[in-house]
Specification:
Largest interface: A-B, 24 and 26 residues
Number of strands of chain A: 11
Largest sheet of chain A: 7 strands, mixed
Radius of gyration of chain A: 15 Å
Mean pLDDT of chain A: 96
Shape of chain A: globular
Structural class of chain A: mainly beta
Strand content of chain A: over 45%
Number of helices of chain B: 0
Number of helices of chain A: 0
Radius of gyration of chain B: 13 Å
Oligomer: heterodimer
């Protein structure tokens, strides 16, 4: 069965860096993009961007273009989110989610929705 | 960017009642690339609906989605105890992908 398993909670000081992993299983990793979504405490969902797992090409949403890096290790079916120069405002749960291409009438498009999610990784930034 | 506005913010209903959740987009969502997710406390979101009206695998048929253009609706025909949660709509037709602010369905 499809699973995305993320690394555990992290407590970091302001200015530090953190790397979150997202290990996929149960499907061909390079057939689906990995998206990253942030959820601040008590808040809604915010799309951070995605990484295409066949090419390694990342796309970052506005607001996540500096200090955020998506990467891959296809040999272990894992995607990574690195956040540098952490600020207290970066305190959130970070989710990875598989992007499934929207298909209708036998045609599949580049647009994709999120059909499987990791369990989330809480990053707390506090001095 | 397409802004999604969900209403109401909170819906207070009893088990067995019908829930109707609204998601309005600031501009037309191309080809009905609209999804709905359910999130319970401490859990990741779960895909319910994609393409505005297609149920995801394993989703009970009491959940239905409808709408096009800028107005979309998620309906839950008869609320079960496990349906009390927060629901988010998402448009995935235009980058950046965006989510609505959520509707909390709570027990009355």
């Amino acid at each position: 069965q499809v699973q995305l398993v993320q690394s555990g909670s992290e407590l970091k000081k302001p200015g530090a860096s953190v790397t979150i992993s997202c290990k996929a299983s149960g499907y061909i990793f390079t057939n689906y993009a990995i998206n990253w979504v942030r959820q601040a405490p008590g808040q809604g969902l915010e799309w951070m961007g995605l990484i295409k797992t066949d090419t390694g090409t990342p796309t970052y949403a506005q607001g996540f273009t500096g200090g955020f890096v998506f990467s891959l290790d296809t040999s272990v079916s894992t995607s990574y989110l690195q956040i540098s120069s952490l600020k207290p405002d970066d305190t959130a749960v970070y989710y990875c989610a598989r992007g499934r291409r929207h298909c209708t009438g036998g045609t599949c498009y580049s647009q994709h929705y999120f059909d499987f999610w990791g369990q989330g990784a809480l990053v707390t930034v506090s001095s | 960017e397409i802004v999604l506005t969900q209403s109401p913010g909170t819906l207070s209903l009893s088990p067995g009642e019908r829930a109707t959740l609204s998601c309005r987009a600031s501009q037309s969502v191309s080809s009905s690339y609209l999804a709905w997710y359910q999130q319970k406390a401490g859990q990741p979101p779960r895909l319910l609906i994609y393409g505005a009206s297609s149920r995801a695998t394993g989703i009970p048929d009491r959940f239905s989605g409808s709408g096009s253009g800028t107005d979309f609706t998620l309906s839950i025909s008869r609320l079960e105890p496990e349906d009390f949660a927060v629901y988010y709509c998402q448009q995935y037709g235009t980058s950046p992908l965006t989510f609505g602010g959520g509707t909390r369905v709570e027990i009355k």
